[in-house]
Amino acid sequence: MDILYSQQYPQRMRLLVQIMLLALSTSLLGCATATKPPPENRDAVAPDPQAIQKAMETGDQALKVGNRDLALFHYVKVLTLDPENVEALYKIATIHREKGNTELAEKAYRDTLKQKANHAGALEGFGLLQLHKKEFDLAKDKLAAAVKIDPKRWRAHNGLGVIADLRKDYVTAQQHYQAALEIKPGLPLLLNNLGYSHYLAGNWKLARSFFEKILAKDSRHEKAWANLGLIYVRQGHHDEATSAFQNIMDEPESLYHIGYILMMEGDHRTAANYFRKAISASPTYYPEANDNLEKIQALFKANR
């Protein structure tokens, strides 16, 4: 039997889950199909609604305080009592997705959708999983289906925004981020993605306003500082870029990043100056700066 939903457990809890899964007679957990009890015996194995509810509530309480392993244990217990419990399957899938157990999450999402094809949460979760795997067409189909069923699925809107940005459809991307922000006002993740979408579209001033809005509430938000520094470099405000980057990295690294961005932009002369500054600030810490400086110098020689 394939013990599908218990691979990441501490040893003691893993053993408990294995024992519980041995009692399951369902293909939903990847186990071999067992013979169903004859009709006259089915009343003897009827699920206990109170026990199911208690296990589900205990799992929900554990999840609420961030104890995913304990929550997973109780959701698996629900399935031993009710193998076709859709919500337990869905929550198991989501926990595994969040823990990075891709194969386990995918199997559990598939099983959830076999039980309920229009489960908006499972469509969203499966879509996010496929987005992480860069299966963009599959992800888009599931995320779009999720928001069609439940327009309040902000994570699905955010995922659709990311896919649209990757395809350079910035108008659509921004519409999805805005829809997500209507559900989760002020969420830094969404503000950052919306700002970056505007940056990609060339709306640097507007993009900067979103990053500044994040930093006004959270002065330690690394992605906002990084994106703000990026905009400063693109606008030619190199001192401001240095200050922005130094909120999240040391001076040599900030100098190197400015040089690298400038090199990618084709401003090789200014990039070389920043690579020299990075090397001067930390000569042994930046072999990358030396490598890029040599590439630029080779370009200068080739163009003479």
From TrEMBL:
TPR repeats: 252-285
Leader sequence residues: 1-30
InterPro entries documented for this protein: TPR-like_helical_dom_sf, TPR_rpt
Keywords: Signal, TPR repeat
Pfam families: TPR_16, TPR_8
Protein name: Tetratricopeptide TPR_2 repeat protein
Organism: Nitrosococcus halophilus (strain Nc4)
